[in-house]
Amino acid sequence: MPTEYNAYYAWVNDKICDSSILSYRRPFERKYIKKALNLQPTDVVLEVGCNKAKFLGELTKDVPVKNIYGIDVNEHAIAEAKQHARGTFQVMDATKLSFPAKKFDKVFMVHVLEHIPDMKGTLKELHRVLKPGGVLIVTSPLDLFRSYLFKATGALCKLFGFHRRKLDTRKLSHQIIHYLMNNPHVHVFRMKHLLDEFRAAGFAPIEIKPICYLPIIPIKKPAIHK
Predict the structure, then answer these.
(1) Quick one: 73 exposed, middle or buried, by C-beta within 10 A (0-12, 13-18, 19+)?
(2) Rounded to two decimals, what is the model's pTM?
(3) How far, CA to CA in Å, does 204 sit from each of 29, 56, 81, 132, 197?
(4) Which of 56, 192, 212, 223 would you label with 170, given CA atoms 20 to 30 Å apart?
(5) How far from chain centre, in Å, is Cα 98?
(6) Tens of pLDDT, residue by residue, the chain (226 residues)
(7) Is 92 exposed, middle or buried (0-12, 13-18, 19+ CB in 10 A)?
(8) Which DSSP category does 59 fall into?
(9) 3-state SS, one letter per residue, for 173-206
(10) Which residues touch 18 (CB under 8 Å, ≥6 apart)?
């Protein structure tokens, strides 16, 4: 992928997801991810879509896990991960993992699956590299209105002729326009469809943990799906 494109998405992760108002959602998710992973020093751990490995570094700060791996298609982010995080970091496509079968005890991916066009291939690869009895944790939004929002912002950008401009994603204003015209989520998941895809890939049992970022709205925890 072009360096400029990768630098843009590194900016999105740092400025939009980690340093903006959206960052309030992170502690909610990370609390449950840490508990579910229950990392042990002997675990072989993989994060798919690790970006700059900030969360992976946070997870392994208190637990001396020796075998830590992180992959991402963003070479810009992987280069930075190698600078400040402990582990083995590689530029790699989640649909074509170069790891041997049954290598990992724990695998997790945080808000990544909705960005990968070949979701089926990704899930099959994750199942292949996970040890029997291993743990896979995937977080993903059920943002049913997102596609409509981006249709609206895309139409507005076209109305002002931004789609005809050559965008330079090194510029802040161009980064914002690019984002508004291009929904980075290629999937809008429905619960039943998502569960069916996991089962088809060989995963069982499956537990769903709903997380609401607005505490005033209660959500009942679904039963475990076997």
Answers:
(1) middle
(2) 0.75
(3) 22, 25, 32, 11, 11
(4) 56
(5) 19
(6) 444 445 656 666 665 555 544 444 567 778 888 888 999 999 999 999 998 898 888 888 888 898 999 999 888 889 889 887 889 999 999 999 999 999 999 999 998 888 888 989 999 999 999 999 999 999 887 766 666 566 676 677 677 676 666 766 566 666 666 666 665 666 677 778 888 999 999 998 888 877 665 544 444 444 444 4
(7) middle
(8) H
(9) HHHHHHHHHCCCCCCCCCHHHHHHHHHHCCCCCE
(10) 26, 54
> Would you say 191 and 142 are in contact if contact means Cβ atoms under 8 Å apart?
yes
In the numeric block, the tokens 């879509």 are attached to 49
Spatial strand order in the sheet of 88-91: 88-91, 67-72, 44-48, 104-110, 130-139
What residues form DSSP beta bridges with 104? 130
Which residue reads 């089926």 in tokens? 120
Residue type, 59: L
Rounded to the nearest 5°, which phi and psi values hold at 89? -120, 135
Q: Where are the beta strands (DSSP E) in 118-192?
A: 130-139
Residue 175 CB-half CA count within 13 A: 17
Q: How many CB atoms lie within 10 A of CB 37?
A: 19
Structure tokens at 85: 């995080």
Location of structure tokens 């600078």: 83
Beta-strand pair 130-139/104-110: parallel
